[in-house]
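Comment thread on ticket #2218

A.B. wrote:
> Attaching the input chain for the structure job we discussed in standup.
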Amino acid sequence: MSTIIVCTDGSDLSIDAARRGISILGPSDRTILVSVNTDHDPTLVTGAGGFAGPTMNQAEYDAAMATANAAAESAIDQTANALGIEGVEREVLGGGDAGPAVVAFAIEVGADAIVMGSRGRGGLKRAVLGSVSDHIVRNAPCTVVITGAAAD
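C.D. wrote:
> Ran it. Output below, let me know if you need it in another format.
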């Protein structure tokens, strides 16, 4: 049974990457659309130490998390609708950092491949900002298909 994880943020790039990556890999028994809620930061409520207090109260934090989860679910819905694949599973991952969250999920479900897009940042920008796709390529337990922007 083959399992493919398709990462999406609902953008045109990620939807195009999903479409292209799935066409490269061919049909799978199980396709899981994944979006990551990167807004998970509990220190906003507890404070980071020192003299400064928390940035928001628990109710504000819960509302912010609900909004972030709704945005992630919307990204998955947009991608599912654009791809038109029947029986696709949906998963919103939390935990903040997208790269480690996707790798951990791939291990958990025994994924055979991960499909994702790349914004094409290179050189200094990638070194300073980090790269989700770079982290996944280096740490994933399976094949990773990364597609860039389509050439016009």
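A.B. wrote:
> Thanks. Noting for the ticket: DSSP finds six helices and five strands in the chain.
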